[in-house]
Design a protein that fits this description.
It holds the Pfam family SNF. This is Transporter. It is a multi-pass membrane protein. By secondary structure, the protein is mainly alpha-helical. Helices cover 63% and strands 5% of the residues. The chain contains 28 helices and 9 strands. The strands form 4 sheets. It has a 3-stranded antiparallel sheet. A hairpin with a 2-residue loop joins β6 and β7. α8 packs antiparallel against α27. The two termini are 54 Å apart.
Length: 729
Amino acid sequence: MPKNSKVVKRELDDDVIESVKDLLSNEDSADDAFKKSELIVDVQEEKDIDVEEESEVEDERPAWNSKLQYILAQVGFSVGLGNVWRFPYLCQKNGGGAYLLPYLILLLVIGIPLFFLELSVGQRIRRGSIGVWNYISPKLGGIGFASCVVCFFVALYYNVIIGWSLFYFSQSFQQPLPWDQCPLVKNASHTFVEPECEKSSATTYYWYREALNISSSISESGGLNWKMTVCLLAAWVVVCLAMIKGIQSSGKIMYFSSLFPYVVLICFLIRALLLNGSIDGIRHMFTPKLEMMLEPKVWREAATQVFFALGLGFGGVIAFSSYNKRDNNCHFDAVLVSFINFFTSVLATLVVFAVLGFKANVINEKCIAENSKMIVKFLKMGNISKDIIPHHINLSSVTAEDYHLVYDIIQKVKEEEFPALHLNSCQIEDELNKAVQGTGLAFIAFTEAMTHFPASPFWSVMFFLMLVNLGLGSMFGTIEGIITPVVDTFKVRKEILTVICCLLAFCIGLIFVQRSGNYFVTMFDDYSATLPLLIVVILENIAVSFVYGIDKFVEDLKDMLGFAPNRYYYYMWKYISPLMLLSLLIASVVNMGLSPPGYNAWIEDKASEEFLSYPTWGLVVCILLMVLAILPVPAVFVIRHCNLIDNSSGNLASVTYKRGRVLKEPVNLEGDDASLIHGKISSEMSSPNFGKNIYRKQSGSPTLDTAPNGRYGIGYLMADMPDMPESDL
């Protein structure tokens, strides 16, 4: 070989080496770009606007106008009527101030971790409850459908309570208030007080007879109550108008509906503290009975209250968080909303017992005055000797302390004859110990207390307007728990779905505005939500911790939030919360089995409540409510497990490409092994199918999209074929 031929060969070899280096460096840069790629799930950053417009993807998810609007929406949903009329009752019943300790412990063990879990999955997957649980495990997709069914059941009767509040609100613009005095009945000869009212009280009579016009049992329909029918229609119109544009319309209303109740509660607290006896009520409320903390029933009721106070399992929490930005600090939101809810309950308890303390003081003064007159009468008749009465006591204007002194003296002296005297001890604690909750607190006890307020119509208007706003805040979240997942899954127009949903709910809700409607409200409240929601949340916990994988979920959170959540949540989600929820479910089933199914009926002749058992058809309805609410879970599992529905949409054959971009992907996911937070290279993933609008964006290459199928994805290979039609690939 000539000498110069070796030089030529060396030069050729160098060219070949340089070419290979160039090729490898190009591939490395492509790999680097791919490794830096990011899976965008309906998130549109400013720099991606042009790319999105070119891809002709019109499905853009709405977003909250501000973080404050979102927090107010979550607070409005979680803070509801239960904070005002359920928590104070439980606090009084279960040990006063001592009840706050088990409640706080269970809030940390069950409440915050599960609330954080729902916020996280909603924010990351950016879908309603159906889409979220379909994504995590298609076989457990029934969890989302069950949430929607429970939301619908609850919305049916919850809006009836808002209708009741609207009725009382409309009747509060008069002086005196219509429930201030018992009505008079006139006949041919004389005028007398309505017997039913005389046997009970003015507020009790107004609630059962004037407002509800209630029948004596659930079997006696009695026809529609037209006043409540109009109020229910008004309530559904308000909800429909507020929700018709989704968070764009309801979000603005949140500023008023979420904040106004706090203004009213603070005003009530200040006003009540200036009234005589309010301190007695607060002292009675927060006097701890530590021995009650050892009773399992206290912990069961505290856990149930924590569970429902935060709205777990309804789907509203997931729906609201799905409109957040991907990098929002949902851990901070979970802690903030949970403690706002707790302190709202404490504030409401202070207000309730300050007002009830004032009411008890008024009733106690009347009791002392009536019994003092009886003692004076006995003194004149000679039944009681004047010598035993201390000389400094004037029975015509006796104080509470002096009356109790006289009462004790008479009781000791007339030990055998004392019961025949029918004297009352008139202790303020006896009045405060009368446990009142729910409608009995709001529409009877509290309304009676307000009749003794100066300018009572003003306070009545404020109170019932507060109840309306508390109810609406919860209703918005409940309806969002239905609308959002259905719109995400079936791609129907939100406006049309909202109108249909509200119209259907109003028509079904007519059973609650019959004369026997209050009994159906009790039935739905007891059986439509409690057990189904517990089962739903247990399955949510299991789906994330064991089906999806708790380690993978924690990694996802780290990628989404920018920091790893405290290890505390790992142990709560994996061990403590599931065990606590299972214990609560068992305790609830046992308690339901031991408690005879029935309701408190108002008996007109006796002017009092009487417990009645449900008829056979009523028991069937109770069972159906629970079965229908949880039925979607096993139904979807069987359908998916046995492939009873054609899942052809779940493969790449149904994917349409244009200009190298994915325009339409299947909704049904087989994403058990796919990470929620997608930033991994394709070799680390098992080529999952995608949900709607999920695609990879090549960083540094604004005109090139890749789908993670194969090394570079089909989108990469087809980037130069803009006009390629749909095909089975």
